[in-house]
Amino acid sequence: FGPLVAASSMGVMAVINGIGRGVVGWLSDKWGRKSTLVFVIVVLGLAQFGVIWAGDIKSESLFLVFAFLSGFGGGAFYRLFATLTPDYFGENYNASNYGLVYSGKLISGLFGGGLGSMVVAAWGDDGAYALAGATSMLAAAIALLLRQPGRPRSGASAPQPQAAA
Description:
This protein is mainly α. It has helices at about 5-30, 35-55, 60-90, 95-100, 105-145.
């Protein structure tokens, strides 16, 4: 697509990225943090495959829709990490635990662009988006296995915050 669509999609992604964080906070209170995390990662993964499809059928409007969904999923899970960390590890050392979790973004910043360009050079745009989508689906499957350290496995998912008495 042309430069206008590319620039528009990046603008839409940035706006929705911010809005998505608020929506995900609300959803996590309704559905639980772990379920919301899995949902967000699946949306992000499906959006990557949607970008491929929109490009194949040459639909600028669908491309923007999937850019919208990608922006939603791409930022929303960081918001969930901030709440999942104390839920799973407690309030003590929350900042250092969350810092460790969030440091994954550092690795992405250092190596993501170079690795991404290598994937595009080797597999093309469709291959890069397919790899991103598949990686997201794998991450969602792994997120289903999350459990609080030191707790026995049970049918319950992530611990829920206690209501104030």
